[in-house]
Specification:
The structure is a single chain. With about 140 residues, the chain is of the alpha+beta class. The protein has one domain (about 5-135): HIT-like (HIT family, subunit A, 2-Layer Sandwich). Helices cover about 30% and strands about 20% of the residues. Strands 1-2-3-5-4 form a 5-stranded antiparallel sheet, covered by helices on one side. The protein binds guanosine-5'-monophosphate and zinc ion (ZN). Guanosine-5'-monophosphate (5GP) binds near residues 28, 30, 31 and 95.
Amino acid sequence: MTDCIFCKIIKGDIPCSKVYEDEDFLAFLDIGPVNKGHTLIIPKEHHETLLDTPDYIMERIGPIIRKVAAAVKSVTGADGLNVMQSNNASAGQIVPHLHFHLIPRFQKDGFKHWPQGQYKEGEMEEYRTKIAKLL
Ligand code: 5GP
Ligand code: ZN
């Protein structure tokens, strides 16, 4: 997509700090890292969100995420690592080209977990039934 910043990175029109590339995927350092070594993995094919992305891409990205995650964790000496992925602006997605964040984590690095809500009586079963029905 012509006005997509990640498509421009893939084409080489915008530089990136590349850590991995193959025919269909690219991994590079996030320009604004939570912690140093924070890496993004993207398919070269433009799809906006996880929900728009075809299975043939999702089937192949998992092993790449795992491989790059291991390298990021090893090099940074991190105690842990988050794999994060946002869909749509309300979920915090800024760049509308599917990407997975690999965030090396350290004890007390200040990066906060999400707040935990709760269900009313019967609500959890209601959601479970509705979601399960579509699968
Ligand atoms: P999102 O909130 O969409 O999941 O995250 C987008 C990420 O892309 C942000 O963490 C941001 O720092 C990163 N980013 C945005 N523009 C660029 C860029 O031009 N180069 C690199 N390397 N990262 C970028
Ligand atoms: Zn794109």
